[in-house]
Amino acid sequence: MSAGEKFVQMFIAIGLFFGVVAVILLLTQRLRSRTGELIQSAAFVLPAILLIALGLLYPAIDTIYQSFRNAAGNEFIGLDNYQKIFTDSALIQVLINTAIWVIVVPTVSTAIGLIYAVLIDRAKFEKFAKALIFLPMAISLVGASIIWKFVYDYRQTSDDQIGIANAFLKLLGFDTYRFLQEQPWNTFFLIVIMIWVQAGFAMTILSASIKAIPDDITEAARLDGAGPLQLFRQITIPSIRPSLIVVLTTISITTLKAFDVVRTTTGGNFDTSVLAYEFYVQSFRSFDQGLGAALAVLIFVLVMPIVIYNVRQMRKLEAR
Amino acid sequence: MTTAITDVEATVAQQESLSGNAHKALTSPWASIAAILIAFLWTIPTIGLFVTSFRPEGDIKTSGWWTIFTNPSFTLDNYDEVLHGTDTNLATYFVNSIVITIPSVLIPVSIATMAAYAFAWMKFPGRDFLFVAVFALQIVPIQVTMIPLLSLYVDQGLAGSDAPGGGFYTIWLSHSIFALPLAIYLLHNFMSQIPGELIESARVDGAGHVQIFSRIMLPLMAPAIAAFGIFQFLWVWNDLLVALVFGGGSPDVSPLTVRLAELSGTRGQDWYLLSAGAFVSLVVPLIVFLSLQRYFVRGLLAGSVKG
Fold first, then answer.
1. How far off is chain A from B25, nearest CA to CA, in Å?
2. Could you tell me if B260 and A142 are in contact, meaning their C-beta atoms sit under 8 angstroms apart?
3. N or C: which end of chain B has fewer CB within 10 A?
4. What does the domain layout of chain B look like in residue ranges?
5. Mean residue pLDDT across chain A
6. Do A150 and B49 touch (CB under 8 A)?
């Protein structure tokens, strides 16, 4: 298909969609009776409900069902898929990696975001300084991974370096290092990429939260002789606690579901795979439908409590 | 949640905020050095790749990008190669990205705005139950839905290059579905904040729901719709998983992210291609982000729970 044809298809789709919406609105416009209003409500709400039921609810139930079936999906095998996840050595490595990601990414991103937010608070170039850290958020994880693969590029110590990380090592007199291959530290170098992306998010939310701390509280503490670190620990941190929790949980959820970094940098090799990537591999490369479904359900089970907790915290933030 | 975000934003906008004494106390040369160091670490990787994308292929392969300061040489060949070279042909994928993104933003935003209006201001049986159900479905990660949804598309003849729309419908539909729960929830929050008297008086004056929706709600909702629209735009443009699974890697429908991920795997050492390619894909989200930053921050907190 040529570019022109694609745009034509796109405009057809958009036109069709808005045509249908317009017709529905026009047809139900004049209805005023009780049944008429019911039909009107249906016209407004049913497209969304049908799409969600067909595209989210049904598939989710089907996936849970498939997770109890074999690779081809034609035989019930009970909990075997789940048992495999927790006994197969390669898959246990995946679970360990996922755990490392979910612990390290939120804590380090939040810590860096918080420190940076405090440091640049009311600085001269605050807006510009924020944009620098925040910019990676706008980039795709694929783009971010390519940017960092270049940073990590490996050449022998005797050669001229083109990756800045190894150039730095060489400058300090060390041997160059295969950042993406050497286990077990390669997982941490992949995690750096995710932290690089997420710190901006943490910084933005926390910075706003710090600015919302009432002036008289900090003033009173200062008059009582609190030093900068005391002020930070006993005023700033407790005041922004709800935002801190929201930021931590939100980044955990994102981390659990992201597979782009692993896929783009190492392709899951060198013991770097994580749950979300393993799901992709089992479902669409190895075609082990049952195991893929079980991995997806596992992501679901891990994400669910964090999301529920997170939504509750957000509501508290709102209620304040 | 949304009110909190708006409040928070108002305080951000306020340059001279009343708080921030902690900062004054912390102001020291060390603090400045630490801030500059973080900013430096965060910017250097992108600058490195950006500089590289303008260097001749031979230079990229033999020397670090920082040598550009002592030995400057620039070229646009890399961009020409990635955009039009038969081997990479990113221009095609750029078109795909646009064709995927525009309907994937317009369709869910429209459907969600209507549904949010119904949930906020219309009376029908099962309303509260349905709203809670939609809200609860936010927690379903997209991974859980993919395989059954894909077989559904195949059964309905929507997948593959012979399908109507050249196979784009699967991607448009998927992005639309995955966006709905969050969009409905967010827009409902905004809509229910509009004073009920406004709706009531319009009803008394004889306006029906369709008129109220199109003449009163849409104009009032414009900033909220824009906020979600921008968030959805960036999400779709930067997405890899949905495009990979539902586009099946076909060059006809795959967006830039899929192609770049592929190049990174097969031509991992060809930095002259990858660097320029990465920047082709970054340009659009960066422009959108920089010009509409305020809206984006608003959608961000709530939006990150998505899919």
1. 5
2. yes
3. N
4. 24-75, 90-303
5. 88
6. yes
Q: Which CATH architecture has domain B90-303?
A: Orthogonal Bundle (1.10)
Domain ranges of chain A: 3-50, 80-319
> Which amino acid does the sequence have at A129?
A
Q: Which helix (H) or strand (E) holds A48?
A: helix A34-52
With CB atoms and an 8 Å threshold, state whether A17 touches B99: no
Query: Per residue in A46-80, pLDDT tens?
Result: 999 999 999 999 999 999 999 999 888 788 888 99
What mean pLDDT do residues B17-25 have?
44
Per-residue model confidence as pLDDT tens digits over A230-240: 888 888 888 88
pTM of the model: 0.86
Q: Could you check whether the bond before residue A184 is cis, i.e. omega within 30 degrees of 0?
A: yes
Encode pLDDT of A246-265 as tens digits. 889 889 988 998 899 999 99
Q: Contact B42/A133, CB-based, under 8 Å?
A: yes
Q: Residue A76: what are its φ and ψ, rounded to 5°?
A: -80, 125
User: What's the token pair of residue B216?
Assistant: 């009163």
Contact B231, B109 (CB under 8 A): no
ipTM: 0.86
Phi, psi of A69 (to 5 degrees): -120, 170
Q: Which residues have a Cβ under 8 Å from the Cβ of B162 and sit 6 or more positions away?
A: none
- Residues B172 and B153: their CA atoms lie apart, in Å, by 12
Contact flag A21-B114 (C-beta cutoff 8 Å): yes
**pLDDT tens per residue, range B245-301:** 998 878 888 999 999 888 888 877 788 888 888 888 988 988 888 887 766 665 555
Q: Give B16: exposed, middle or buried? Use CB within 10 Å, 0-12, 13-18, 19+.
A: exposed
Cβ-Cβ contacts under 8 Å, B20 against chain A: 121-122, 210-211, 218
Residues A150/A141, Cβ–Cβ less than 8 Å: no
- CATH of A80-319, picked from 1.10.3720.10, 1.10.260.40, 3.30.930.10, 3.30.420.40, is 1.10.3720.10
Measured at the alpha carbon of residue B167, what is the angle toward residues B165 and B171, in degrees to the nearest 5? 105
Angstrom distance (rounded) from CA B147 to CA B227: 31
Judge contact between A204 and A135, C-beta under 8 A.
no
Q: Give the number of other CB atoms < 10 A from CB of residue B287.
A: 11
Print the SS3 string covering chain B.
Answer: CHHHHHHHHHHHHCCCCCCCHHHHHHCCHHHHHHHHHHHHHHHHHHHHHHHHHCCCHHHHHHCCHHHHHCCCCCCCHHHHHHHHCCCCCHHHHHHHHHHHHHHHHHHHHHHHHHHHHHHHHCCCCCHHHHHHHHHHHHHCCHHHHHHHHHHHHHHCCCCCCCCHHHHHHHHHHHHHHHHHHHHHHHHHHHHCCCCHHHHHHHHHCCCCHHHHHHHHHHHHHHHHHHHHHHHHHHHHHHCCHHHHHHHCCCCCCCCHHHHHHHHHHHCCCCHHHHHHHHHHHHHHHHHHHHHCHHHHHHHHHHHCCCC
